From TrEMBL:
CDD domains: LuxR_C_like, REC_NarL-like
GO biological process: phosphorelay signal transduction system; regulation of DNA-templated transcription
Keywords, in A-Z order: DNA-binding, Phosphoprotein, Transcription, Transcription regulation
Domain HTH luxR-type: 144-209
Record's protein name: LuxR family two component transcriptional regulator
Lineage, highest ranks first: Bacteria, Bacillati, Bacillota, Bacilli, Bacillales
Domain Response regulatory: 3-119
Keyword flag DNA-binding: yes
GO molecular function: DNA binding
Amino acid sequence: MIRVLLVDDHPMVLKGLRLFLQTQKDMEIVGEASNGEGALQAVKTERPDVVLMDLSMPVMDGVEATRRIKADHPEVKVIVLTSFSDRDHVLPAIQAGAAGYQLKEIDADALAMTIRAAHLGMTQLHPEAASHLVSQTTHEPDDERSNIQVLTPREREVLQLITAGKSNKEIAAHLSIAEKTVKTHVSSILGKLDLQDRTQAAVYAMKQGWFG
């Protein structure tokens, strides 16, 4: 079962999410919160696998809550579920550690897919959010990171699969290597590219057009 925490300050949104998730046989709602501060406490006590996080909330907003959750519980996946698709909201959320970014207009099947993908370590971004993220994630043209040669052939293969949305387990199976080895390659890729997580690595590769 995927343990899901719901965080939103609108009761009707919570009700809708609750009704939908109760129909998913592989998901279980372990708690609800109406602001970021409540989310922090709920994560601490309920230990969810995935958090559906609104951005605009009283007391503590979703970006700060995401940042603090990832700092204290890096294994918890946070999916932003919001009405905002502009770049001023997308990039801070991803930088805070969000594993996904979707709009509240998302249909039920796509939301379920996003939750399952996050649980497996993959990233799902709304097309508008992805477009803003790529356009805003810029680097200097002479930055040595823009040269894919800084990566080994195996690291390039791993990064290409990350960009395709594959989890570590799927990458390991595809390349016939141990999942622990994949994790080592991912750490090396992030270090060489001076990036913080898999999402940033995928966006950077897309920006460079390495696998397009």
